[in-house]
Amino acid sequence: MNETMVEPCSMLFVPADTDRFLAKAGQRGADALILDLEDAVARPAKDAARANIPGFVPRLQASAGVPVYVRVNNEPGLLDADLEAAVAAGANGLLVPKVDTAAQVLRLDHAIGALEARHGREPGVVRVVALLESPLAICNALAIAQSSPRLSALLFGTEDFGAAMGIPSQPESMAVPAQMLALAAAAAGLQPMGLPGTVAEFTDTEAYRSVLMRARNIGMRGCICIHPAQVPIANEVFGGTAQEAERARKLLEFFDASVAAGRGAVAYEGKMIDEPIAVRARRFLERYDALQARRSKARKDAA
């Protein structure tokens, strides 16, 4: 797996309207950073925040050594200017909120393609994470996921979805729509991202870890982080630990030896293992090793 293409476990928000958050953003260990022009920026400060993008994007790319995304405002009067600033600045991708239909993605794809050509960037190089945060979006999740090769992930917007439905952002309320998104993303070959619960918890680390484990168990493979304290937990839950990697290597070593000896399903540590279990272990290790390589490179680049 190309280390530059490995899916991020954690994407950390950095408000684009203040310089002081940039100083340590690249030292938090996130797999990607998101310069936020939307919820983290008050409306009167939108223009000033956008004006920071040309300077902030290359600074973060150089200091953090990880992809830098920009969350744009998906509303008339703001979207076009946000897209222009992000693409011109060399952003690796865009986080686009309030995506409800495939038609929206197609219009966005066309607009980004024109901007790539205008600013001399390779066609299709700017990736898009689509943020689905309404009942309509979840019902359209598969169509959205299949709408454009520019998409890299679908992200579940827990808080806005809860507000739209009038329900609390708790796992028992969010598990079904979150898994609907995860299924649609996986069916289209995209990364499923998000949590079946609140993203706002950063003081109770065990409660946060519990929500992340639920997310992983329904098929999510990463999430956004609104506070640096969330980053190492997200990296561990979605990316795995050294102990998990060692167990997977031993399982595969045993399974491969058994297959070579002519046995397809064998008992290992009290459980039967067969090809699907081995495939899951191989995929886990491929991503784990790629993540470790990229994080090691990012640390060196940031040093």
From TrEMBL:
It comes from the Bacteria. GO terms for biological process: oxaloacetate metabolic process. Residues 10-228 form the HpcH/HpaI aldolase/citrate lyase domain. GO terms for molecular function: lyase activity; magnesium ion binding. Gene3D superfamilies: Phosphoenolpyruvate-binding domains. The keyword Cell membrane does not apply. Its cofactor is Mg(2+). Coiled coil: none annotated. The keyword Magnesium applies. It comes from Ramlibacter albus. PANTHER family: CITRATE LYASE SUBUNIT BETA, LYASE BETA SUBUNIT, PUTATIVE (AFU_ORTHOLOGUE AFUA_4G13030)-RELATED. This is CoA ester lyase. The lineage of its organism: Bacteria, Pseudomonadati, Pseudomonadota, Betaproteobacteria, Burkholderiales. InterPro entries: Aldolase/citrate-lyase_domain, Citrate_lyase_beta/mcl1/mcl2, Pyrv/PenolPyrv_kinase-like_dom, Pyrv_kinase-like_dom_sf. Substrate binds at R71, E133. Keywords: Lyase, Magnesium, Metal-binding. Mg(2+) binds at E133, D160.
